[in-house]
Design a protein that fits this description.
Structural class: alpha+beta
CATH topology: Trna Endonuclease, Chain: A, domain 1
CATH class: Alpha Beta
Largest sheet: 4 strands, mixed
Strand content: 5-15%
Number of domains: 1
Radius of gyration: 18 Å
Number of helices: 6
Strand order of the largest sheet: 3-4-5-6
Order of helices and strands: HEEHEEEHHEHH
CATH architecture: 3-Layer(aba) Sandwich
Helix content: 40-55%
Number of strands: 6
Shape: globular
Length: 203
C-alpha cells in the first residue's frame, strides 16, 4: 500500500464513498473523509505509542490532562508530570495525521517531503499558543505518506535517545519510528476499506 501511494499507483477501483463522494483509483478521498471511524482509532494508536515511549523513558504521564483545555474545550493528548522536560517546564503533546495530497497541502508537498506536516504543526501551535508560557508544547505531525514534520523528527529523535539511555539498546530510536510508521501504513489500508459500500444483492 505505502509503495503504491508513493508511486501514485492504483490502490482500488474507483467507487463512491459512504458519504457519497467519489473515491478515485488512488483512494485519496479515504484519507480526508472526516467521518471515518478509523481516523479516531488511528489517532489513539499513535498517541499510545508516544505515551508508552515516554513512560518507558522513565517519566510519568497523564493522558488528556484536565485544566489544559482550549477555548473550544479540546485538550492536548498528554502531559508529562513531575519531571520537567526542558527549560524547567513540563512537556505536553498532541498527535495529528494529515493527508500528504490534500488540495490545500499539494503545492507544498510537491516541493519537499514533510511540508504538509510542517504546515499542520504551525496550525496546531497557533491553537495551543496559550500553553507555551508554562509548558513545552510539542505537536507530533505525520503524513499519510509517512513523512514527519521537522519538529516532530527532532522531538522523536530526542525521545529515542532517552529510551536508549534508559534501556541501553541503541535500536530504540529505530523501533519507535517503525512503530509509528507501521500504524500509519496499516490505517491507510483500513481507511480505504472503510470507504467501500457493500453491494446489495437482490434475489
Amino acid at each position: 500500500m505505502v509503495v503504491a501511494l508513493r508511486l501514485g499507483c492504483s490502490v482500488c477501483v474507483p467507487h463512491y464513498c459512504r458519504c457519497g463522494s467519489l473515491v478515485d483509483a488512488q483512494g485519496l478521498h479515504s484519507f480526508v473523509y472526516k467521518q471515518a471511524r478509523s481516523r479516531i482509532i488511528r489517532h489513539h494508536a499513535l498517541d499510545d505509542v508516544v505515551t508508552r515511549a515516554i513512560q518507558s523513558a522513565g517519566t510519568p504521564v497523564t493522558k488528556e490532562p484536565v485544566g489544559l483545555s482550549r477555548l473550544d474545550g479540546k485538550r492536548p493528548d498528554g502531559l508529562l508530570t513531575l519531571i520537567p522536560w526542558q527549560e524547567g517546564k513540563p512537556l505536553t503533546w498532541d498527535v495529528t495525521v494529515v493527508s500528504t495530497l490534500t488540495a490545500s497541502y499539494l503545492s507544498s508537498s510537491a516541493r519537499f517531503a514533510g511540508a504538509a506536516a510542517d504546515l499542520s504543526v504551525s496550525r496546531k501551535e497557533a491553537k495551543y499558543t496559550s500553553l507555551t508560557y508554562s509548558y513545552i508544547f510539542k505537536p507530533i505531525a505525520v503524513e499519510s505518506h509517512g513523512s514527519f514534520s521537522a519538529s516532530s523528527l527532532s522531538f522523536l529523535t530526542t525521545l529515542g535517545e532517552r529510551l536508549t539511555g534508559t534501556s541501553g539498546d541503541l535500536r530504540e530510536m529505530s523501533f519507535l519510528f517503525q512503530r509509528l510508521s507501521v500504524i500509519v501504513q496499516r490505517f491507510n489500508s483500513v481507511l480505504i476499506h472503510e470507504s467501500l459500500v457493500p453491494e446489495l444483492h437482490i434475489d
